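Entry 14. Structure prediction run on the chain below.
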Amino acid sequence: IQEPEEKKIALELLETEQAYVNRLHLLDQVFYMELMKEAKTGKTVPEEVVKMIFSNISSIYQFHSEFFLPELRKRMEDWNCNPRIGDVIQKLAPFLKMYGEYVKNFDKAVELITAWSEKSPPFQELIADIQKRKVCANLTLQHHMLEPVQRIPRYELLLKDYVRKLPPESPDRGDAEKALEMIFMVAKHSNAAIAEMERLQNLWGVYQRLGLEDDIVDPSNQLIKEGPIQKVSTRNNSTSEKYLFLFNNMLLYCVPKVIQVGAEFQVHLRMDVEGMKVRELNDTEFPHTFLVSGKQRTLQLQAR
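Output returned:
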């Protein structure tokens, strides 16, 4: 007899979970443990660095190996008399918030591995040594570390599929739909964490290019657009190269620095967005020009 579609998907969830737990075991019990053991001898790398690389992988590993995988296995063994997994996944969902920390830390972890591999040959050798083992399947530590980042979207896809294939009268329908909604919320939460991290990194990059003007550095600012612009001087009928940064609350009017030491730009003027007006001009001599007028002053600018 043909297995019902929803059971096939539930079995795929169990199989991928088993493979995932093996991967977590490799990260936590092999890479993390062995690097930590070496770090304690003080020869390779500071213990703090190892902890920063692996973030909260131990909690994630324990949760999946000691709770979620066994529960899932039990469900699949009882499938014929009790075809349901929705309730187990509902128990899983709140714990997936642990991933927020791991995901946010991922880029930094990869940077640390690269930096310390250059600084400490023994550290690099130990990683290379573990990577040669059969269990690593010719993949790098960084590659294995990506797995938890990709796991939540995978749950979401499998569960969506599962709910779609459930017969309308299935006893698991209510639970499975609720579980899917919970997983969806967690996935959104972890995506928001990544987006927020990227926004802050971009913002920090802009501040460095501006020479870290103290009163501009505000983490709640949002950079909307930046780019070169020509400033039109009507007095002597010429233009000069300037650069604009538009934030949600202010426009920075900058001059590119000739000598690039540290900052790339010097801020000449800050204009509040509040009360700012922009008006296009039909100037035959200077096409694509517009006026920006704010509380601070009025600028005539020419776009490319």
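The mean pLDDT is 90.
Filed with the rest of this week's runs.
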